[in-house]
Amino acid sequence: MAKRALCIGINDYPGTGSDLSGCVNDANDWAAAFAKRGFSVATLFDRKATGAGIRTAIRKLLDASKRRDSMIIQFSGHGSFVPDEDGDEPDGTDECICPYDIADRGPITDDELFDLYSSKASGSRLVMISDSCHSGTVARFAPITTPPTLPGPTAPRRIVRFLPPAVFLTKRAAGKLGLSRALHRSSPPGRYAALLMSGCQDTEYSYDAWFQGRPNGAFTFVALRALKALPARSTYRDWYNAIRKALPSQQYPQTPNLYGSSSTKRWKALG
Q1: How far is the CA of 16 from the CAs of 102, 104, 150, 162, 166, in angstroms?
Q2: pLDDT, tens only, 69-91
Q3: What's this model's pTM, rounded to 2 decimal places?
Q4: CB neighbours of 153 closer than 8 A, spacing ≥ 6?
Q5: The CATH number of 3-265 is which of 3.30.1050.10, 3.40.720.10, 3.40.50.720, 3.40.50.1460?
């Protein structure tokens, strides 16, 4: 059984005015945790994490998969949403992740990720860990600048990992979105190509913040801290429950999500 991981971290978003701080740290921290547990790890940071680069790396990871292999794809960066084009989303929008070149080349939607993930070998295990925003409302695009971890005017900012669709969509496409996005969760039930553990719900934000003197995602920091304390044979559900003891909080109003079938949630964490 092979164990492979792909870690993606993007701080720089040219042409958007919405750079982040903690995503490369996140990816490096996840990579170290995976390597400690026997995974061979590939990484993509900033300018290497273009849309084409991410797609190629995912295909390479999945093309090498065999029955009983364990694979993890970790992403830290901006998330957003776009108009749903195939009618599979009840709220009319598709969640997406934002590659380095989103301003020029656009996002990678959840539909495309589903298609990519469906190419994995039968009997293999695939987990996606995402520390990015999956949605938001039009009225909440602005970064929150309340310093959450250090007092005083010089404390680092807490920033949402959400890129407004208007940054990369045409006006016509952006106009299709409306406000219904905030009212529903859009993930179709029973559509599982991978087990997803994410930093927030469909209608919430994940936060880019500052912990112990360095920038990280709030979800990443909490998840890796919880991982260190897990008993050896803990499941993903056990890990998720440990994370939920710390999130959401007053400082970080984000509710982590564990999305998958009941059987995948019983997989051994990082097994």
Answers
A1: 9, 10, 28, 11, 10
A2: 999 999 999 988 877 665 444 44
A3: 0.84
A4: none
A5: 3.40.50.1460
